[in-house]
Fold this sequence. Notes:
Elements: H1 8-28, H2 38-45, H3 49-55, H4 59-81, H5 85-98, H6 102-115, H7 126-132, H8 134-138, H9 146-154, H10 161-185, H11 190-201
Helix pairs in contact: 1-2, 1-4, 1-7, 4-6, 5-9, 5-11, 6-10, 9-10, 10-11
Organism: Fusibacter ferrireducens
Protein name: TetR/AcrR family transcriptional regulator
InterPro entries: Homeodomain-like_sf
Amino acid sequence: MNQFNVGRRESKKAETKIEIMKAFIERLEMDELNAIRVQDICDVVGISKVTFFNYFTSKEQVIEYFIHFWQYDLDYQICQTQLRGRALIYELFRRVGAHPASKHILNAIMLFFIKTSDYKPMTIDDYELYLWNSDAYNQGFRLTTIQDLFEKGLAEWQVSSAEIKTMMNNLLSGFYGMAFLQTVSYADNLNENYEKFLDSILPLDLK
């Protein structure tokens, strides 16, 4: 078991941040971001708005907080499957698309980046990672990005760095874009859209 030199105040702060995030993502399973009020989340968690804004600068930052943990979990889960190449990429998209709030999360984070000109990633310390998924932490997993996860699949594709970069851009475009298209076309199943997208762009020689 890992030991952290964390006082009760710091421990309570980390626990409350995660509690806020869980309550927020649960609401996102039903509602778009603009329909969720900070006060509603505070009422669920049992905190004041002052406390909320001591921990997060905005509703979007709560989603960013979740995205970091989501990617952390995906890295851990994918490693357990021992999938590689094309199968790894399909599984990543499948796991993301299967989340009940995936469409709302992806649309919200995309809009956040569109309107943010000076983005600075939030800091998540090791104790927060441990609280979220102690098994992953104890096995040496740390924060990663969706780009890093895609690169693990594309590493099986023996081509130039320029081709890898182009494919990475295509994957990222579809990763966020399919959620947006699902919204404007009123399609029901994000995973079906993801699968069709991957079928159309992944090279046949990526095994």
